[in-house]
Amino acid sequence: MNREMTVEALYDLSHTAAAPLLAAVTYPWEALPRIKDFIRQTGATLPAEEYIAPKPGVWIHKSAAVAPSAYLGEDIIIYPGAEIRHCAFLRGPAIVGSGAVVGNSTELKNVILFDKVQVPHYNYVGDSILGFRAHMGAGSITSNVKSDSSLTAVSCRDADGTLRRIDTGLKKFGAMLGDMVEVGCNTVLNPATVVGKNSNIYPLSSVRGFIPAGSIYKRAGEIVAKN
Description:
Strand content: 35-45%
Largest sheet: 11 strands, mixed
Shape: globular
Number of helices: 3
Order of helices and strands: HHHEEEEEEEEEEEEEEEEEEEEEEEEE
Number of strands: 25
Distance between the termini: 28 Å
């Protein structure tokens, strides 16, 4: 087991309503196939005096702001103070945390956004989990399917530098972004990317595999620790 990529290492679960789901797995991507069921079970328990249900399978907190032009599919919970902007496309399933921002023309599919996440400008976020206050710059996306459609694996290095792969058993796996991760504009997070807490990704990057916590990703082969 690579402890740097566990739920415990990547996320503070006090900042998400999906804490019970994530606490039940070791690696966060193990929760991806369970998001829909979790939303349906949780939605049925939400207090009617606090949430509206504009159609079956969608729950919106009364303090959230949802633009009339936004599309809401099925199996979606939008928590207090979240903002869903003009022409956002929430295909679902999607958990949008308190105070999160889903922006113009941003598309969500099978995701967990922790509280205060920002995906504000032309982002695609699919089969991914974004930690507390994670931010994706304009035009940055998660690529969630390999070009040959084979099953995904996370590439990482052991303490001795040996490169190894952790098979996920998933065909669709975008990115796991730890708390406070900053992703630069027009970056592609390739399938099965995991970025540790408090890391920064330079704009125009193509990222794959595991990026350790507290890092600055400049380009492939050039990853430095923050001072």
